[in-house]
Amino acid sequence: MNAPDPAFLCLSPAAFRQCHAGVPLRYGVIGSPFGAILLALTPQGVCRAEFLEEGEAPQARWEAWRARWPWSVWAPLAADECAALEARFLARDLPVVVEGTPFRGLIWRALRQTEAGQTLSYGMLAERLGRPQLARAVGQALGANPVAWLIPCHRVLDARGSLRGFRWGLARKRVMLEWEEKSA
User: Fold this and answer.
1) Could you count the other beta carbons within 10 Å of the beta carbon of residue 22?
2) Whole-angstrom Cα distance, residue 108 to residue 145?
């Protein structure tokens, strides 16, 4: 569980800003079996990936990202770049560079080490981190996940094994789990 993940980096907000001030952040919409995803990339990897609701224009979300990181230079991805990213995204073949607290980084890294098709509870994930009393904090960290699919928070179920608490909707969570189960 403690094996390093060279394709994952979690930086504090100050460190993220220091690394990315004046650096191009590229953004675009890619497709997936679970819906359209608005994606933002630093030169080191994906820093944001959020599902868009059916018919939702990405402009408002992109503007919120731009307001959060006003010190970055934003540039759209070309359509062919977005198309090339789709397969890599689905295969989880893209590095991740996110902004978060050290504790959230531990949770997100641990979750990335679960196998596709495997599920666990909030409590089980807290136990893996050696902090079984922090199951609720694990849930809060998963709710703040900045990168859908690449940090697979959809794999976490409640203590009874039921679907619960997915930022992008329980129907989407169910489809994601079924897709992984078939692909595993």
Assistant:
1) 7
2) 8
If you average pLDDT over residues 128-134, what whole number do you get? Answer: 90
117 dihedral zone (left: phi>0; alpha: psi -120 to 50; beta) = left
CA pair distance 13, 17, nearest whole angstrom: 6
Give the pLDDT of residue 53: 92
Write down the pLDDT at residue 46: 98
Q: For residues 117 and 70, is the Cβ–Cβ distance under 8 A? A: no
Q: How far apart are CA 65 and CA 86, in angstroms?
A: 21
Other C-beta atoms lying within 10 Å of the C-beta of residue 63: 11
Mean pLDDT throughout 148-165?
92
Position 94 scores a pLDDT of: 96
> Is there a catalytic annotation at residue 153?
yes
Among residues 10, 47, 82, 153, the one annotated as catalytic is 153
Q: How far apart are CA 20 and CA 45, in angstroms?
A: 12
Distance in Å from the first CA to the final CA of the chain: 20
Per-residue model confidence (pLDDT) at position 3? 60
What three-state secondary structure class fits 28?
Answer: strand
